[in-house]
């Protein structure tokens, strides 16, 4: 294992004013984005002074830096940006990186990179050798998690480590496959580590260790739970339900509630009830809304359950809906909840809204997942079966980053989809089954958007003041 520390000059001209003005309520007026889906891990951007409509001129790209392969999203904390990528060895550099076939991928190095969030200048890089023997061997999938002065990162093949955030020094590391006698999921480890108190919780796999809690300071095992044929890719979700804190974990054949301190199982809901399509695509995180949980699967549709003190009950499921033509069956897109409704990307690439009461379809729109150059009404519906979009709420609007590299600002409600502008930010760098894609979730911090494909990482100014006359 090697450590590289790089110092380089200014990558791109441009200044960013980083604001940390603490309000009387305790909420920051300008926030970091220290983990997947933001400070609260709920996909909500809570800063003020952000654009309410996209300007006619191009958005300002403050800086851009080269990056290598992978789908890891950036995390931003205390003026630093952290991201992971994969650099193929010279002899494997020309190998196909995004093919769904085979499990013998390229050899090279995965890297955890720390950049100055203002300028994109490199601060440090930690690199370690690996061989990506998974399908879609593009590189790391997981977004780093920042907790105080610790950084937690999970590599494609199960290399879990804790680094010092300001220097990149390794504090501890664990190979999940070796410790828990298991193999990586067919599409690699993708579940983002979750910090809870002194625990670091992540999915692992193996006998009785589908999900594990480690001491975040040492890496020592505290508890383990669940045996699954395939642990899947959905990250554990922490929630307050039925009067207690619970850890919700969804794997290949069931969703369970666990006591987060001990790993004791509290309840179980079997989904799908039929024989699961394998390899499983348990990818989208469970969406908690009060005491209810919504889950969605490309092959098996969706379900809504309610958790009570004495267990869990199913409210509805669309598992038997033939073809899933009017429900939400997302493969990897984040889903949003509004009182009485759920909105998400269906398997055919349509954005759909369904009623929370009975899953009935309220509206559908293909506009968001089409590119600006395409006519949404004329696109063959069978060409976008793996369409994906990352949706982030900001006040009463939604920032939507599509797998076509476009940033869209829109209003979403029970009445429909209302676009407030879109701009192309990044080129697609991968393709599968006839669809080109960018599969990297963005970060929103300090008034800026940080986003990448598999060639470059950019910082985009979304502050309202930057576009005012």
Keywords:
four-stranded antiparallel beta sheet; 1 helix; 41% strand
Fold blueprint:
Layout: E1 2-4, E2 61-66, E3 75-77, E4 80-88, E5 107-116, E6 122-131, E7 145-147, E8 150-154, E9 159-164, E10 170-175, H1 176-179, E11 194-196, E12 199-203, E13 211-215, E14 221-225, E15 237-241, E16 244-250, E17 254-258, E18 265-270, E19 287-289, E20 292-297, E21 301-308, E22 311-317, E23 336-338, E24 341-345, E25 351-355, E26 361-365, E27 389-394, E28 397-402, E29 406-413, E30 416-424, E31 430-432, E32 435-437, E33 443-445, E34 448-452, E35 456-461
Antiparallel strand pairs: 1-6, 2-35, 3-4, 4-5, 5-6, 7-8, 8-9, 9-10, 11-12, 12-13, 13-14, 15-16, 16-17, 17-18, 19-20, 20-21, 21-22, 23-24, 24-25, 25-26, 27-28, 28-29, 29-30, 31-32, 33-34, 34-35
Structural class: mainly beta
The beta-strand count equals 35
Tell me, what's the shape?
A: globular
Q: How large, in whole angstroms, is the Cα Rg?
A: 21 Å
Helix content: under 10%
- Spans of at least 5 consecutive residues whose pLDDT stays below 50 are 1-28
Structure description:
The chain has 469 residues and is mainly beta. Among the domains are: 1-146 and 441-469, no CATH class; 333-438, Thrombin, subunit H. Helix content is 1%, strand content 41%. The protein has one helix spanning 176-179; strands spanning 2-4, 61-66, 75-77, 80-88, 107-116, 122-131, 145-147, 150-154, 159-164, 170-175, 194-196, 199-203, 211-215, 221-225, 237-241, 244-250, 254-258, 265-270, 287-289, 292-297, 301-308, 311-317, 336-338, 341-345, 351-355, 361-365, 389-394, 397-402, 406-413, 416-424, 430-432, 435-437, 443-445, 448-452, 456-461. It has a 5-stranded antiparallel beta sheet with strand order 1-6-5-4-3, with no helix packed on it. A 4-stranded antiparallel beta sheet has the order 2-35-34-33, with no helix packed on it. A 4-stranded antiparallel beta sheet has the order 7-8-9-10. β8 (150-154) and β9 form a beta hairpin.
């Amino acid at each position: 294992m090697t450590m590289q520390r790089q110092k380089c000059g200014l990558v791109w001209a441009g200044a960013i004013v980083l604001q940390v003005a603490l309000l009387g309520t305790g909420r920051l007026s300008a926030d970091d984005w220290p983990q997947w889906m933001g400070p609260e891990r709920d996909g909500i951007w809570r800063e003020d002074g952000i654009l309410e409509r996209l300007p006619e001129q191009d958005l300002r790209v403050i800086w851009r830096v080269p990056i290598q392969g992978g789908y890891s999203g950036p995390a931003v904390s205390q003026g630093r940006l952290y991201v992971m990528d994969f650099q193929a060895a010279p002899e494997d550099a020309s190998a196909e990186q995004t093919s769904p076939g085979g499990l013998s991928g390229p050899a090279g190095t995965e890297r955890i990179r720390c950049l100055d969030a203002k300028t994109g200048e490199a601060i440090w890089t930690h690199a370690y050798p690996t061989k990506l023997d998974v399908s879609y061997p593009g590189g790391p999938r997981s977004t780093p998690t920042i907790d105080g002065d610790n950084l937690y990162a999970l590599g494609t093949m199960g290399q879990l480590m804790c680094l010092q955030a300001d220097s990149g020094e390794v504090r501890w590391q664990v190979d999940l496959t070796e410790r828990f006698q298991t193999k990586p999921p067919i599409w690699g480890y993708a579940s983002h580590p979750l910090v809870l108190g002194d625990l670091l919780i992540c999915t692992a796999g193996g006998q009785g260790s589908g999900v594990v809690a480690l001491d975040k300071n040492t890496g020592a095992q505290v508890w383990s739970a669940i045996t699954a044929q395939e642990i899947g890719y959905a990250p554990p979700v922490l929630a307050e339900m039925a009067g207690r804190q619970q850890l919700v974990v969804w794997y290949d054949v069931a969703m369970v509630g666990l006591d987060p301190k001990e790993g004791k199982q509290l309840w179980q809901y079997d989904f799908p009830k039929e024989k699961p399509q394998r390899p499983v695509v348990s990818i989208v995180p469970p969406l908690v809304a009060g005491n209810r949980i919504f889950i969605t699967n490309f092959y098996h549709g969706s379900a809504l359950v309610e958790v009570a003190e004495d267990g869990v009950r199913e409210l509805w499921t669309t598992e038997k809906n033939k073809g899933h033509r009017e429900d939400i069956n997302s493969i990897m897109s984040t889903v949003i909840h509004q009182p009485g409704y759920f909105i998400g990307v269906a398997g055919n690439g349509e954005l759909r809204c369904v009623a929370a009461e009975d899953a009935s379809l309220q509206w559908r729109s293909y506009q968001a997942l089409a590119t600006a150059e395409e006519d949404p009404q004329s696109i063959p519906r069978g060409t976008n079966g793996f369409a994906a979009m990352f949706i982030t709420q900001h006040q009463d609007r939604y920032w939507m980053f599509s797998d076509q590299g476009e940033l869209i600002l829109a209003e979403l409600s029970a009445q429909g989809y209302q676009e407030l502008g879109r701009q192309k930010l990044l080129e697609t760098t991968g393709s599968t089954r006839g669809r080109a894609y960018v599969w990297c979730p963005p970060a929103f911090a300090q008034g800026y958007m940080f986003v990448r494909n598999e060639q470059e990482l950019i910082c985009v100014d979304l502050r309202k003041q930057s576009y005012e006359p």
